[in-house]
Amino acid sequence: MTDATLIPNQLLTIEIEALAPGERLQSRFEGVQDGLAWVAAPFRDGRPLLPPPGTEIKVWWPGEGGLYGFATRVMDSAAEPVAVLGLACPTEFEREQRRAFARVAVGLMSTVVKVEEGPGQWRPVEAMIANLSAGGALLWLEDDLPVGTGVHLDLDLSPVAADVEVSGVVVESRPHQSSVRLRRHETAVRFLRPTARSTRLLTSFVLRRQADLVKKGLTVR
Asked: Is there a contact between 45 and 132 (Cβ–Cβ < 8 Å)?
């Protein structure tokens, strides 16, 4: 098995620009049958999205080597007994390498992360940000989030910007020995398709933070 291998029940993120432009929707890989790759239909506003045949979509999931994905088309769908989409099987995968952006320690910034628990269902979770980049973040959480869990962050990047929103997916979670109360899991999050504005502001924040650390004689990682 390789990092890019899809297995049943693998959590996925799906992009359907024709029906939900700019959104990342949660799904799950069901398996291959009749020459099609079947995935759970994503939900929006409490209802399953069942795009017509021919609709272009992108599918993403986390692996040990980074974020994997492929572009494909909807070939079939079914609403009963469970809403599913039949996709054309991919001939090749894309891969986004880890550490594509410089990261920087941020001194355990407190924030609230929205954790996706189901279609359209989000739960707020208190977290601390250990380090940050334009491509992802390392969080300290009480919760042990499974790999593939969708998350949404509202970041205060003062003085660069007061409000930056990014969505992502958990790519790793492990126990962390910390004296910080109720933050027992170190959770790596990779941002999914951040906007150009978010990438620009995150990069500016990281570069500014790195410059501040250098001035103080501290190590920049």
From this structure: no
